[in-house]
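Q: Two folds, back to back.
A: First:
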Amino acid sequence: MLRLLFVSSILLNLLLAGCATPSENTAAGHLQGQPLSALIKRVGTPDNQTSAGSRETYIWEHSEPVVITRGGEETAFTRITVKKTCRLTAETEGTNVIDKIAMDGNYEVCAFYRNKM
C-alpha cells in the first residue's frame, strides 16, 4: 500500500510539475505577425504539419529523459526515468505569416525553444 501511495504521488507530481507558463507563450509571442521563415530560422524545420482549408499548423516537439530520485529516511531511494516534452505550434492562414503561436509542455524542456527565441 505504501508503495502504491509513493508511485501515485510521483505520478501526480509529474503531471503538475512544470507545464508551460504564460512566459513561454510571451517568449514565442513576439514572432506573431512575423514570417514563418523567421521561426524556422530560429528553431529549425517543423516535425509535423497539418492543413485544414487555408489554415496551416506547424508543430515542433522536443523531448528529454529526466531521472527522478525519490526517497527518504523511512523509504528506499527509487530512481525512475520519465520523458518530458514540449510542443511548439505556429499557425498561418493563407500566407506564410504567423497569426497564432503557442508553447505547451514541461517548463524545463520548453527552454530548448525559449532560448532560441
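A: Second:
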Amino acid sequence: MTAISRSLEYRACASGELVGPPDPDASWVRALAVSLANWAERYQTLLGAILGFGGIIVTLLENAKLARRQGAMVRAQETEGLRAALKGELAVLADTFSNALETIKRARTDKTRELLVPTVNTTAIFDASTSKLGLLTIDQTSAVVRTYSLVKELPIRIGVLRQMLDSDSGRTYAAVGSPLFGALERLYAMALQEVQVAAQALE
C-alpha cells in the first residue's frame, strides 16, 4: 500500500493515534437521532397534547366501566328488594286465601247459611312497584302480573255478591249464601294456586 493510499485510509487524531475513515452507518444513525431530537423539540407541545388526550380517554373509559359496575350493583339491590317485598305481600295473600278456604270448610260443616267475604285484598306493594317490574325477568313479571290481576278481579269473578256491608274496620265485605260456597271455594283455591306460582317464580 502506498503512502498516498494510506493517507486516504487513515487520519491522525489530536492524540497522535491513527483513526480509520468515518463509518457511513454511524453517520446515518447520528443524523437520524439529531432529526428526531429536533422534531421532538419542535412538536413537543403537540406530543404533550396527544399524550394528555390519551390519558383523558383512558380515564373516561375507566370511569365509565366503574359507573356500569356501580349501576349493575344498584340494579341488583333494587331487584332483590322488589322480589323480597312482593314475596312478602304474596305470602299475606296466600294466608288470606288459605284462611278463607278453611272458613268455607267450617261453614259447610257447621251448616252456616251465610259468610261475609272480604272484597278488598292487600296489593299496596304491587301497586307502588308497577314502574319497577322491569327489574324482574320476563317469567317473573308475567307470573306476578297474572296473579295480581286475578286478585284484583276476585270480587268481580265471584260475580254473585248480593249484599255489600261495611265492617267496623272500614273494609268492605260481601255476604255470600251457602248455595254459593262451592263456587266461592273454587275461586279461592284458584287464587291461592296463582299466588303460590308467583311466589315460586320470584325465588
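Q: And?
A: Residues 76-201 form one domain.
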